[in-house]
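Obj.: predict assembly geometry.
Materials: sequence records (below).
Method: joint structure prediction, all chains together.
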Amino acid sequence: MYTIGVLSLQGAVSEHINQINQLGAKGIQIKHPEQLSEIDGLIIPGGESTAIKKLIDRYDFLTPIREFSKANKPIFGTCAGMVLLAKNLLDSEDSHLMLMDITVKRNAFGRQKESFETSLHVYGIENEIPAVFIRAPIIIEAGEDVEILAKIDNHIVAAKQDHLLVTSFHPELTEDSSLLQLFLEMIATSKKLTV
Amino acid sequence: MNKLLGTETVKRGMAQMQKGGVIMDVVNAEQAKIAEASGAVAVMALERVPSDIRAAGGVARMADPRIVEEVMNAVTIPVMAKARIGHIVEARVLEAMGVDYIDESEVLTPADEEFHILKSEYTVPFVCGCRDLGEAARRIGEGASMLRTKGEPGTGNIVEAVRHMRKVQAQIRKVTLMSDDELMTEAKNLGAPYEILREIKKNGKLPVVNFAAGGIATPADAALMMELGSDGVFVGSGIFKSENPEKFANAIVQATTHYTDYDLIGRLSQELGSAMKGIDISKLSAEERMQERGW
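Observations (raw structure tokens):
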């Protein structure tokens, strides 16, 4: 059974943990960097990216998360998680973990009143899935190694690069767990590679 | 592609993204920037913080839209603003301005002494105060997407927020253990919509997040409210009425994230300067207690 950690500094943590447990994996809260050695994959949840960024810095998570990624261990970023994983942010010097070769625009659809839900076709998932966008970011540029998984109005809203997965939306706010299933498959693949 | 705006999931989800965070009252762009830099998950744009509203007396209304706009332009985190209880037009104005969340708040002078706003009609989500499960369920029934304790705003005294959080939690536990045939009478006794009470019984928790508010003045207060089961905290007068707002804001954010790390909270509480001066609630007359507003 895989253990998946959810970075628990701020944001929608319990929603991810519930979904992980429902799929038969073990979800744990990650509050300290040393806990990263106990897990097979890391989820950086939705929340306020500026607040989570400050707490990542304050509790010295930056280098440990980069090393976790260097060891090819999968990381899944939803919404704020996507912002934090991006190499570049539009009109901002605040890019943070800089692990994924994407440029992200924050609050790309506007303020909360423009937040929406829809159904979306995601590459590799058979049926359309429900997707909840809350003050959501989009990917405006993606490097060659980035696989585009979903688009809305021609904007990239889900993508994968090797062991990194990001979505603009919140699969943890819905009953659908197909993206988490995809993440579990990425963990299985990374395990095979490292054995 | 069909985009659905302002759905229950979208409105409640916005509050879920705030969990584990601190929402701070601010009265101008400069304070908003301090709040954002300290790691606040949102700011509440106001004309006066509750303790000044208390001191000023008179009718407290929605903030001057210029202040709200100034704050919205100053930060990238979400901006909330308060409308008077029952004041449909103040709420619509704030919605039109693009405020991310509206607090239908007892801190302002109520505009309607009988009815709250029908919040389900709005695209913008609302947060409302509650002292017990009946009040919580009524607000959810009207469409509130987030709750908070009422506490006693502007006092720097945590006792009422503790009372309200404990009461709601205890009543949830009671309802969860009840047999199905007892539930209708409990709904009547609490003044709670039956369907919402049934949902709470089934899930063992509220269908929306519940923050603490009204009297949080120190990092230990914030941690206490988290320990009692709050999903996050609002700090009103506590930050910008303290001696060193930047330090205070930082310390409250950290104490909320690591609310069981008592060493850390001890260290954070050192050299903070003095907290806001508090008020003994029993010295307030009934008319001075904001928590009695709303029904």
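Conclusions so far: Chain A has a mean pLDDT of 95.
To do: check interface contacts against the pulldown list.
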